[in-house]
Amino acid sequence: MTAFDAVTLGKRIAATRKSKKLRQSDLARESFVSLPMVKAIEQGKRYPSDTTLEAIAAALGVDPTRLLDTHTGTETRVHAALPAISASLAAYDVPLAPPRRTLDELRTVVGEAVNWRLAAQYGRIAQHAPALLEDTIAAFHSAQDKREAARLVVAAARSVDAVAYKFGARDLSARLVELMRWAVPHAEDPLLSASVAYVRTEVFFTARAHRAGTHALEAAVNAAPAARDEETAAARGALHMRAAVIAGRDGDADAARGHLAHARRLSEQAREGTYLGTAFGPESVRIHELSVAVSLGQDHIEDAFAVARSWTPSTSLPAERRSGFWIELARAQTWGGRFSDAFESLKVARSIAPQHTREHPWTRETTGTLVRLRRADEESLHHFASWAGAV
């Protein structure tokens, strides 16, 4: 890479940052890249690695290819990491080696992985996933008191599962869910058990076993502690949100609305926030109101439009959740013949969480429909479709 290339890239990053009205310190904080590194990259003195470039692009709300045309994207590197991730799970229930990192060190790196998941920075998770799983599992086996180590295993596995599930490695995702279910009883935390039940729903989504998934979530709600504070309200509320969506996909509108009503009431007891890795609160419930309407199908698109008519998610929500709102809204807008609006919604989703948007199957489906119907600005749409893998 020539010095000219590094300088050009640095100027693009700086110009994009300034257009977003961000300071270098803001970019450093949002991208989890050190401030000296951000300064050196913008000055053309350092050339970022793929993961650093992707982190900066995510913080700026643009795809990495907007900053560097030759960037090959995250997908290749994620798929290259999948065999090593799979190998790290091969004997999770068998002690194989002593841990290489202390619990204090693991708390830090697992916390980083959780933040990357919420920010939809899947490339960064994939890079560290095999070692993260191996080390947390080894720490679990060597711990005298397994409660904290079990929590770290669950959090690490959930972060890695986000990569596996989003990038289509559904068998691997199911194995990671089983790892969570194996570890969580040792944490002796009913709220964490509820969180794992929330994640387990992915297995039912993949198998299209929607009725079974609804029953599993309802059982998890019954097993969860009563709502007596923000944490317990959030645990039960998140399960109801998830149950509403999967009931909607099963076509059971009454059950979906019932679970939404429970979630809405519980959200009155909890400020919007992230509880054990799951976002919950009034805004999250509103997003799920739209999601349920889309899950119920084309006859319910007016319900989806009603949610979005006077409200959009705030920037305080995790990027993955915000981008999901716009992806689902685009699906409803396409059904309703609002093709230009649908394309605009997809572009908003991409600006929030490029990796999540690119890998979402509904992004490809909606974009493909718009291309076939020759709707929206043709040149921009085809560029977007190529980026999303829809053509």
State the strand order across the main sheet: 1-2
Strand content range: under 5%
Overall pLDDT metric:
92
Topology-level CATH name of the largest domain? Serine Threonine Protein Phosphatase 5, Tetratricopeptide repeat
Largest sheet: 2 strands, antiparallel
CATH class type of the largest domain: Mainly Alpha
Return the CATH architecture of the largest domain.
Alpha Horseshoe
Low-confidence stretches: none
Helix content: over 70%
The number of helical segments is 21
Task: Write the H/E string, N to C.
Answer: HHHHHHHHHHHHHHEEHHHHHHH
Extended strand count:
2
Structural domain tally: 4
The end-to-end distance, rounded to whole angstroms, is 31 Å
Which of globular, elongated, flat, extended, rod-shaped describes the shape? globular
C-alpha-based Rg, rounded? 21 Å
Structural class: mainly alpha
Question: Would you write up a description of this structure?
Answer:
- The protein is mainly alpha-helical and 391 residues long.
- The chain folds into 4 domains: 1-71, lambda repressor-like DNA-binding domains (434 Repressor (Amino-terminal Domain), Orthogonal Bundle), CATH 1.10.260; 74-188, no CATH class; 189-317, Serine Threonine Protein Phosphatase 5, Tetratricopeptide repeat; 323-391, no CATH class.
- The protein is 74% helix and 2% strand.
- It is built from 21 helices and 2 strands.
- The chain has helices at 3-19, 24-31, 35-42, 50-60, 64-67, 75-88, 103-118, 122-142, 146-166, 170-187, 190-207, 210-223, 230-249, 253-267, 282-296, 301-309, 319-335, 339-352, 354-359, 361-372, 378-388; strands at 273-275, 278-280.
- Strands 1-2 form a two-stranded antiparallel ribbon.
- The mean pLDDT is 92.
